Amino acid sequence: MVFLGAALPLLAGAAQIQTSPELGKAEGQCRPGESGPAFLVDLVGVKDRAGRVKIEVYPATDGDFLADDNILLMAGKTFRRVEVPVPAEPVPRLCIRIPGPGTYAVTVLHDRNADHKFSLSQDGVGFSANPRLGWSKPKAAAVAVNAGGGLTTLRVVMNYRTGLFSFGPLKRS
């Protein structure tokens, strides 16, 4: 109940921002010749080139990691998003701007049917620092990464459902 009480003022303010998959995109879009601060995210183990890939940057705290984008923005906290068709390169590299040097949590979603919803049976997910995944979201400390004032390269290993009760990187033959 303490969490709900703390969140009520933020929820009341969130009504002022319309929910949209476009939130955070203008702030996250890299410019040509971007010199930073930004993350260059290398996506390792992308299953196929179907659909879209979405990268999001959050504050690296458990209360803010994967929190509603409206709530984060209304509280003046970091939230950035880049969403593009899956690039054709064997290891796609995407750029996402960040507000400055600091510690952040980064998520990557491979939305294979481009429906803006996560499907455990077909979509893929990856996190900065590549934590071992279970059946719940990782803690912010497990995905926290430090960024400098320039370009910071991250290697994110994508995870997909690999069996009835398993979720992890795809095995390549």
Commentary on this structure:
This protein has 173 residues and is α+β, with helices and mostly antiparallel strands. 16% of the residues lie in helices and 32% in strands. It has 4 helices and 10 strands. It has helices at residues 2-14, 25-28, 69-74, 140-143; strands at residues 38-44, 52-59, 80-85, 93-97, 102-111, 124-127, 144-147, 151-157, 160-161, 167-168. The strands form 3 sheets. Strands 2, 3, 5, 6 and 7 form a 5-stranded antiparallel β-sheet that branches. Strand 9 (160-161) and strand 10 form a beta hairpin. The chain is globular. The protein starts with a helix and ends in a 5-residue tail after the last strand.
The radius of gyration computed from the alpha-carbon positions, rounded to a whole number of angstroms, is 16 Å
**Which spans of ≥5 residues are poorly predicted at pLDDT below 50?**
1-15
Distance from N terminus to C terminus (CA atoms, Å) equals 49 Å
Average residue pLDDT: 86
Notable features of this structure?
alpha+beta; single chain; 5-stranded antiparallel sheet; globular; 16% helix; disordered N terminus; 173 residues; 4 helices
Topology of helices and strands:
Blueprint: H1 2-14, H2 25-28, E1 38-44, E2 52-59, H3 69-74, E3 80-85, E4 93-97, E5 102-111, E6 124-127, H4 140-143, E7 144-147, E8 151-157, E9 160-161, E10 167-168
Gist?
By secondary structure, this protein is of the alpha+beta class.
